[in-house]
Amino acid sequence: MITDTDLIGKTAVITGSTQGIGYETAKLLLQQGCSVVINGRNSERCERVASELQEFATHEAEVISIAADISTETDCRAFFEQAQGAFPKIDILMLNAAYDPPYAGSIEAIPEEQIDQTIQTNIKSQITLSQLFLPEMAQNKDGVVILTGSAASQRGSNRYAVYAMSKAALSHLTMSLAAEYGPHNIRVNCLAPSVIRTEFTKAMWGDPAKHTSLSNSYPLRRIGEPEEIAAMAVALCGKAGNWMTGQTLVIDGGQMAAVGCHYDM
Ligand SMILES: NC(=O)c1ccc[n+]([C@@H]2O[C@H](COP(=O)([O-])OP(=O)(O)OC[C@H]3O[C@@H](n4cnc5c(N)ncnc54)[C@H](OP(=O)(O)O)[C@@H]3O)[C@@H](O)[C@H]2O)c1
Predict the structure, then answer these.
(1) How many A from CA of 264 to the centre of ligand 1?
(2) Residue whose CA is at the smallest distance from ligand 1 atom 37
(3) How much is the mean pLDDT over the chain?
(4) Percentages helix, strand, coil for the chain, rounded to the nearest 5?
(5) pLDDT by residue (tens digit) across 178-190?
(6) Which of 10, 12, 21, 120 is the most exposed place for a label (fewest CB within 10 A)?
(7) 232 in a structural domain
(8) What element of type H or E holds 45?
(9) Which domain holds residue 46?
(10) 264 part of a folded domain
(11) Contact 144 CB / ligand 1 (< 6 Å)
(12) What CA dihedral angle connects 246, 117, 74 and 92, to 10 degrees?
């Protein structure tokens, strides 16, 4: 359990937080006394999740939900305005929602609309949301930004080239935002997980045989859990992250470190 009294009374905005990594991060932040704005595309679901999460709040932290499809610029702007109207100050921004193109295979055949949607949601919207939220953080001389990248950004892919490229762009955006906003005391980091047990990657681990073979590709012999990424995100929001900025943290059960290794167990 992380305990960091620094987060009491703060406010976090997390895109894509009705389930998975965003949801677990919201839960952990609420447990630290940090208010949270939940987001997803479906308003009923957003409201249900927000009221479910309220029970985890401590120190009078609040949870509200703002439904918005962050793949559109109009919704990004409306999302920002509502978030800004709901809380006097936003301290933490986690840019977590992403598009996972259904196509997997050679780059020669990826449908154009999936290329566009990947670039729009995973890159352009993250720039738009940064443009909207960071100026006020800069004025406040305080802020934490976390982008959810992917371990897929760290190597080439013969099946997911465009998705991997979009996440690599986020690692670069992380460095540029850190460089520009560091003098305003804004810290920007990127989390790059390998396969985590969420809906996003269910096709990769849902089947028991696939699950076993995937688990065996990690030195830690299992895939990751969303709470494990959430714990790192929350650590970055508090004291542990105070002098860390511009970094991509690969959280992958040791997979990258063990390329070429074979296990008999
Ligand atoms: N799971 C993994 O193995 C893995 C590995 C590496 C990186 N990641 C990254 O981790 C992040 C979160 O993934 P996850 O595994 O937690 O996914 P998840 O469990 O599928 O959750 C995705 C969340 O994003 C919301 N969402 C999706 N599209 C949205 C949009 N256009 N606008 C607003 N909200 C949207 C979903 O709600 P609605 O559907 O209701 O909108 C949901 O709350 C993503 O950036 C993903 O690329 C995941």
Answers:
(1) 34
(2) 40
(3) 96
(4) 50, 15, 35
(5) 999 999 999 999 9
(6) 120
(7) yes
(8) helix 43-53
(9) 5-258
(10) no
(11) no
(12) -30
